[in-house]
Amino acid sequence: MDHPRFGLVGNDRSRAPPDPGGADRPHDRLFNLGRVTMTLEALARSVPLEQQSPCQKTGIRMRQRISPRYFSLSTLLAISFGGLMLLAVGSVLIVSLGGAGRNTGELLADKADLILSSIEQRVRQHLGIVVAQAEYLKTSMDRGQLDIKDARALETALRSALAATPQVTGIGFIRSNLEVVRVERRDGSLITEDWSGQLDIIKLFEDVRAGKAAGWGEPVWSHPFQQTIIPFIVPVHRDGDLLGILVPAIEVTELSRYVAEMSSPVQRAFILHGQDAVLAHPALAGRSPTGAHERPLPLLTEVDDKVLQAIWSAERQPLNLPLRSTDQGHIVPFSADYFIYMYRRVAGFGEKPWIIGAALPGSDAGQEAERLQTMVLTGLGLLLVSVFSAIAVGRRVARPIRDFVRVTEAVRTLEFDKAPVLSRSRIRELDTAGQALNAMVAALRWFELYLPKRLVHRLIAHGQDDLANAYERDVTVMFTDLSGFTRMASRLSPSETAQFLNSHFALVGACVEAEGGTIDKYIGDSLMAFWGAPEEQPDHVERACRAARAIASKIHADNRARLTSGLAPVRVRIGISTGPALVGNIGAPSRMNYTLVGDAVNIAQRLEQVGKDVQDDSDVITLITEGVFTGLPEPGQAVFWARREVRERDGTIGIYRLT
């Protein structure tokens, strides 16, 4: 059944000649020229648009409207494989890195909370003992268990409290009459003084009576201790009356020594009083007491620590970590590294909040972040490798398909010599298809030897119906023949004879095909060619004569080479005739030839024979009919030779010789 996809006849058999055998046998179809070309048409599927039949042109235009753009298979596979790999690996990478990022952020936040909570806890523990001891003495005094008027009992209580709290540098009790009894750790002596003339003590009692001053006080410079202290103010009442104020004091340097114990080379703990004053820092732990009543604490710029000095730098950057609600942090870049500042504000130690914090170098504190960054870079690298590997695999898979396309393109244009030999593939289906194409191309190369390429192109372009039925057409026919070939062949071996003929016909056939002629057949040492069919060629006479002159030129050059090699020259006779002829498929249903039948064919063959009567030593003798002479654009291209009778034709004809 003919397939409409290839623009064939379909089921309408009315125009096809009847099969005498009553059936389409497979081997009949194989050798039927028209149906073989249909098979080639199915293989080729397309030819240039200007050569298409109207039906094919319509189909092509419809396909072009439906699918105006085409994509390379290798590009499509590369994009598909690469996109799938990007989607698969990328999604896993995003999920993994997202989880790792959250875990890393929470880990750093936990680390910051651990550092700050540890510092705060130890500071509160350090100061909490003082608070507990002071509250115990207050309770004893409030209940009358300790008589504040008994100097010896008060001294014993104060010395015991001092011994129990090593972080306290001194403790004193100020009676309501502003008389103070105090004990210093430095020399352990009991000192009794009258502070009624000190304005700050008077103001302190006023604030206590007003309910303002209690608990930890602001850091102050103590003249008795000659250093900055942090007092803990504990009012003592009995029956509503203020008996006095119990004041244990802690040296700031002692607090700095304690903070130094919590620091390390990669972790600098500190306590700020407000944002500008430094309450405790490892650099202050071994420094001699300094200060003044007006400014008891050193400023940030006065501490020998450039990292701490830069804590509030304008170049600070936010710390993107999920810190606890009580914690804060930021990053300050330095020339060689960056530092991470984590801190929290702690109330309850005076009017100004304490800022407890730590500074960590980014090279150490950011190890988790750097590991995450390394993971990100590694993941991106693996993603890129995966995508490029997928692209490479796609291109490698598409490579044999591209070779398939090259083979089919060569088949479509009937240029089988350009078809590559497909290599074996480890993919079974590709290997099977490749070897099948190799076998098909090998068979088509043999097929090409037995059919004129121009004729096959015509059949593919226009289908079988264009040439299946015989029709009359004005054509020009050429016959060539080797003079004295029988005598020449008798001196050659069969293989040498075949080699000589193949070389001769290659030379003559190239001249014919160069002028658009169709080689009909080879008959022994003769060649038959024609112009004007299957394509219409209005200048078919000129083409045939140009081909004859080209043959003469080639034979002449070849003879010079033969004479140089010591071989006998070749003589060729050519007869050219023009006129109407029956053109089409001629033969039995099982074996047909596309050929010419008519008087023009017979006359051309007779003229070639008449050439034997021309007496000269020319390499090529070309005789043409009067009709051919008339069709030449310049009459000087031929000369009249004679009027002669030709075999099997009544009367004489004018014969001209092509110059």
The multimeric state of the shown protein is: single chain
Largest sheet: 8 strands, mixed
pLDDT average, as an integer?
80
Gross morphology = rod-shaped
Helix content: 40-55%
What is the CA-based Rg, rounded?
Answer: 58 Å
Q: How much of the sequence is in beta strands?
A: 15-25%
If helices are DSSP runs of H or I spanning 4 or more residues, what is the number of helices?
18
Question: How would the blueprint of this fold be written?
Answer:
Blueprint: H1 26-31, H2 33-44, H3 54-66, H4 73-142, H5 151-164, E1 170-175, E2 179-184, E3 190-194, H6 199-209, E4 215-216, E5 220-222, E6 227-238, E7 241-251, H7 252-261, E8 268-273, E9 277-280, H8 306-309, E10 317-318, E11 327-333, E12 338-346, E13 354-361, H9 362-365, H10 367-412, H11 428-450, H12 453-462, H13 465-468, E14 471-483, H14 485-490, H15 494-514, E15 518-523, E16 526-531, H16 540-564, E17 571-588, E18 591-597, H17 599-610, E19 620-625, H18 626-631, E20 638-645, E21 652-658
Parallel strand pairs: 17-19
Antiparallel strand pairs: 1-2, 1-7, 2-3, 4-6, 5-6, 6-7, 8-9, 8-13, 10-11, 11-12, 12-13, 14-16, 14-17, 15-16, 17-18, 19-21, 20-21
Helix pairs in contact: 2-10, 2-12, 4-10, 10-11, 15-16
Describe the protein in words:
The chain is of the alpha+beta class and 659 residues long. The chain is built from 18 helices and 21 strands. It has helices spanning 26-31, 33-44, 54-66, 73-142, 151-164, 199-209, 252-261, 306-309, 362-365, 367-412, 428-450, 453-462, 465-468, 485-490, 494-514, 540-564, 599-610, 626-631; strands at residues 170-175, 179-184, 190-194, 215-216, 220-222, 227-238, 241-251, 268-273, 277-280, 317-318, 327-333, 338-346, 354-361, 471-483, 518-523, 526-531, 571-588, 591-597, 620-625, 638-645, 652-658. The strands form three sheets. Strands 14, 15, 16, 17, 18, 19, 20 and 21 form an eight-stranded mixed β-sheet that branches. Strand 11 and strand 12 form a beta hairpin. The chain is rod-shaped and about 175 Å long. The model is unreliable at 1-67 (pLDDT under 50).
